[in-house]
Each structure stands twice: as C-alpha cells, then as structure tokens.
C-alpha cells in the first residue's frame, strides 16, 4: 500500500481544507510543507472523502517526490482504531487530533503506530487550561496546534477568528512541544503573528480563500513567502 511522505521537520506551513488535486498542486508549488484534510464524523465540511484524498496524496507523491507536502488527516475521532482506519483509507501517516480525545487514547494511538506524526489541537476558548492540557499530551504527540473557538457557532477552527496570542506564546515558552499557530491567519497578519508568538509553524484555512471558497493563488503565495522568511528563526 502507498504511504505518504512524512516529516517531523520544522518550520511548518500547513494549509487546510484541500478541495481537489489542482488546489493541492498550487499549495505545494508555493512552498506549503503540510496539507490538512478535514475528514470523518464531526467535521463541519469534509472537502474530500478519504478515497479521493488518497488519490491526491498519491498524485503529489508521484509529481513532487521527496518534496511533496506531508498530508495530514484532521479528525474529531477519539478511538485509535477508528483514527487508524481513517488514516489508512486516506493513505496518510500524519494526523491532527482536533476533537476531545482522552490522553490515554492519544497514548494508545502512539503505541499502536509509533511512526505516526501526531499534532494535537488545543482550542483557545474551548480548552480552559491550555498549558495543563499540553503537559498531559506532550509525551504522546509531536507538536501542538493552537486554534480558535467561536462561541457563537460552537466551531473549533476554520472560524476566520484570531485568538489571544498570549496563550499561544505562553505555550511556546513552555517548551513542551513545538507549536503551530492557527486561527484567523492570512497574508495580512502572518508576519505580526510569527513575530509575536514565535511558533515553529503556522496554519491557515479560510484566510487564504477567495469568494468561491477556493484557495487564492496570490494569497497563498504571499502567505507562504512571508511565513517561511520568518519561521526558521522562530525557535530562537
């Protein structure tokens, strides 16, 4: 079975909400290191089902080889067996745990698939004590991704909203794991975000989309260029 190229290398520029191969190619061509695919139960909008996502992963691997972006399944699932079934269906070996998963289940996921790249979302405004959550999950994950809760809609991520960057900055300073900053990022604020938070990576979704919901090439180009210019120094 085909396996996705995987990397634990930082910095990371992840862009989520991939709709088709054309969009994935665009992101890869402009230096995006990771592509996020929201899939499975609980996802507000599943842009691609697993079998179609797998085709995108395979095509990227053929076309970009070792330079292909790492493809990440974004899931709300909480049972390791269900998460692994979804990953295998999509041909991916990286996962972003975006729902309410128990620490014991994250630990079990790590034991069952040691080579898996695991990001744990910490949703500011939903997770009351982000640092306490991070301390509990740190032994079992490779990085944290801080995102934004929208209290009006109940959405966690893809809200277009910026959260309190002081929370993410405190997490960076804790040194528990590398931090990927998400939540309302786009070309207009990514420089300020990186300079303020000093993360190991950034993640964007709606901030790079045009009126029709597709990724805008100019926004993607500017976002990736600005982020990658600053991120190599983010861990200092």
TrEMBL record:
Transmembrane segments: none annotated. Residues 72-224 form the N-(5'phosphoribosyl) anthranilate isomerase (PRAI) domain. Pathway: Amino-acid biosynthesis; L-tryptophan biosynthesis; L-tryptophan from chorismate: step 3/5. The keyword Amino-acid biosynthesis applies. GO terms for molecular function: phosphoribosylanthranilate isomerase activity. HAMAP family: PRAI. This is N-(5'-phosphoribosyl)anthranilate isomerase. The gene is trpF.
């Amino acid at each position: 079975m085909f396996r996705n190229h995987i990397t634990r290398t930082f910095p990371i520029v992840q862009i989520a909400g991939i709709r088709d191969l054309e969009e994935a190619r665009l992101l890869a061509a402009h230096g995006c290191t990771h592509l996020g695919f929201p899939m499975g139960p609980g996802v507000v909008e599943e842009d691609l089902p697993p079998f179609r996502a797998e085709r995108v992963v395979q095509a990227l691997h053929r076309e970009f080889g070792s330079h292909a972006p790492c493809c990440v399944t974004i899931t709300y699932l909480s049972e390791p067996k269900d998460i692994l079934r979804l990953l295998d269906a999509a041909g991916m070996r990286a996962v972003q745990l975006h729902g309410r998963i128990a620490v014991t289940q994250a630990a079990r996921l790590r034991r069952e698939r040691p080579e898996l790249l695991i990001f744990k979302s910490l949703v500011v405004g939903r997770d009351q004590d982000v640092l306490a959550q991070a301390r509990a999950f740190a032994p079992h994950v490779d990085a944290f991704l801080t995102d934004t809760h929208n209290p009006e809609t109940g959405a966690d991520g893809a809200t277009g909203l910026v959260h309190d960057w002081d929370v993410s900055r405190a997490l960076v300073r804790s040194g528990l794991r590398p931090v990927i900053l998400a939540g309302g990022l786009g070309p207009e604020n990514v420089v300020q975000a990186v300079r303020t938070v000093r993360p190991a990576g950034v993640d964007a979704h709606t901030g790079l989309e045009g009126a029709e919901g597709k990724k805008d090439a100019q926004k993607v180009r500017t976002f990736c260029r600005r982020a990658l210019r600053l991120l190599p120094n983010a861990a200092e």
